[in-house]
């Protein structure tokens, strides 16, 4: 009996040791599993964070960084549609091209006619002024046709032009006569004298011709106009040296630029 009792006690101790080993193995296994799960979770979190940063970087590179608009007063924002519908002030410049048709004007010794030179310079002035966003240019003629002074004045008034500029050459029996001269109506009170002065000064600043000044003289084409009106004589075709310049395309461009700048200066001064 004593032996049997000892055997039973021994068996109990053996079972107790086995159970402890199993518990240790299970506990170790659980620890390993938990450790592995923790690493997996950390890896996923890190990947999501990196992906999020990469996506954020990509979005920023494409669309730029966002701006804080919390302090923007939206009540004072402009409506783009409304802004586009706001009409801009348009100046209407009437360019009167001298002569035309059977009226050839003066002629050079080599046969160039004033009416053609007037047209070339007027085209250059028109192109220069039209490049401005707030100027509309109307020309009395862009082909070789005859117009009376009355036709020109009535058309300018009908178009509600802001200014009237008539472009001409001139000539004289005295072949030594030379230079540029700009005319405005006698006793005009509509700023015609100011327009003439600015155009005259600008023209002689751009080309090497004698300055004959701004002069009051009422040509027929300056009578009856409802706006500041001038007539510029760009030079003497009767002067051989001057005629060469006036028929030179490069010189014509410079002259046209000078006339245009004088007109722009006047319009700027009008506000």
**Lateral strand order in the biggest sheet:** 2-1-3-6-4-5
Count of DSSP strands: 6
Average predicted confidence as pLDDT:
82
Corresponding CATH superfamily of the largest domain: Zn-dependent exopeptidases
Please report the distance between the alpha carbons of the first and last residues: 131 Å
List keywords for this structure.
271 residues; alpha/beta; Aminopeptidase; 2 domains; 6-stranded mixed sheet; 7 helices; disordered N terminus
Polypeptide structure, described:
With 271 residues, the protein is α/β, with parallel strands linked by helices. It has two domains: 77 residues, no CATH class; 180 residues, Zn-dependent exopeptidases (Aminopeptidase, 3-Layer(aba) Sandwich), CATH 3.40.630. It is built from seven helices and six strands. It has a six-stranded mixed beta sheet with strand order 2-1-3-6-4-5. The longest helix has 62 residues. It starts with a helix and ends with a helix.
Can you summarize this structure?
By secondary structure, the protein is of the alpha/beta class.
Strand and helix layout:
Elements: H1 2-63, H2 80-84, E1 91-97, H3 114-130, E2 135-139, H4 149-158, E3 163-170, E4 180-184, H5 192-206, E5 211-216, E6 229-236, H6 240-246, H7 249-270
Parallel strand pairs: 1-2, 1-3, 3-6, 4-5
Antiparallel strand pairs: 4-6
Helix pairs in contact: 3-7, 5-7
